[in-house]
Write a structure and sequence with these properties.
Blueprint: H1 3-10, E1 14-17, E2 21-25, E3 28-41, E4 44-55, E5 61-68, E6 77-81, H2 84-93, H3 100-107, E7 108-112, H4 114-122, H5 124-130, E8 135-138, E9 146-151, H6 158-177
Antiparallel strand pairs: 1-3, 2-3, 3-4, 4-5, 5-9, 6-7, 6-8, 8-9
Helix pairs in contact: 1-6, 5-6
Length: 182
């Protein structure tokens, strides 16, 4: 059974998988299969989406997991991994890795609400979840009621999907703990 399907069914959600389609191009055969699901994870609406691509052009749309809230968040955040050379520069010329918060600050670039960023950097559970991961967390301006997490290297297992879902829940709880967040 597929990893996404197992995760969705474990929490009693709805899973949908398109039939694999293929096309021939001058460079070879190209295949595509869309997979998506909806689940209620710890009282939060989650959607999961990936368009698996294979064949001659194995460049796929990234895996995305979204947490959907009924009200808009009155905050914004964009968190993404720093580049390889930015991390090296920070390690060589700036402070050494003393605490987990400093290590995360070296690994990720944060933009958006300073209050929310400060809360997330103080949340040790959140820091442990993203340490060693390469994820992008975003609250889009067009849809401010959605928090999106996109792992750069995809997903590995059901436990990894649960870790990503738990990270989204932690971000949501940090937003809701803030005054004037909704």
């Amino acid at each position: 059974m597929e990893i996404i399907q197992t995760f969705i069914e474990k929490y009693g959600g709805v899973y949908h998988e398109e039939q694999e389609s293929s096309a021939h191009s001058p460079i070879g055969k190209f295949t595509s299969q869309e997979k998506r699901g909806r689940v209620l994870y710890k009282g939060n609406k989650l959607t999961v989406f990936i368009n698996e691509v294979g064949g001659a052009n194995p460049v796929a749309e990234l895996f995305r997991m979204k947490l959907i809230h009924e009200n808009s968040f009155d905050t914004e955040i964009l968190m993404f991994p720093r580049s390889y050379w930015s991390i090296k520069f920070r390690r060589w010329f700036l402070s050494k890795r003393n605490t987990l918060a400093e290590a995360i600050h070296q690994q990720y670039k944060f933009t958006g609400s300073r209050e929310l960023i400060s809360k997330l950097k103080q949340n040790s559970t959140f820091l442990k979840k993203i340490d060693g991961e390469y994820v992008c967390i975003n609250i889009p301006k067009k849809t401010p009621n959605i928090i999106i997490i996109t792992p750069s290297h995809g997903y590995r297992s059901v436990e990894h999907l649960e870790k990503l879902a738990e990270t989204l829940v932690l971000v949501k709880s940090s937003i809701l703990d803030s005054p004037n967040s909704i």
